[in-house]
Amino acid sequence: MANDGVVLDVFRHYGIKHLGGDVQQEHMDHSETALNKVGIEPVHLGTSLTFAGGTPGHRWLQVAVNGVATDLKVLAATEVEADGQLDQMASFFARAGIPREALSVVRPDGWPVVEVFGSASFPT
Length: 124
Description:
The chain is α+β, with helices and mostly antiparallel strands. It has 2 helices and 5 strands, in the order αββαβββ.
């Protein structure tokens, strides 16, 4: 993409509802129509499905070993959730001789998110 390009991420959280693909496609069509009306030709790059997490407060966090970032990531909204994700990975690292105590996450600015849509959201 050129440096003067604009990227627009559209986020739709369906909560615990299990809406069919046809409903989701209808929402995408409405978004595309709205963009076309203002002269924007959207390019659809992909759709993702998240089985864990997925709230506006969730972020992909890099896993670090002894403070050194790795290419592995966990999806978490809170410190408790991040620790739980690391606990689940611990056996994988233990096979390489790395103890759970050596695992942490790289915390980006603004994480954990404490307010979503103007109200308190997640306990830390």
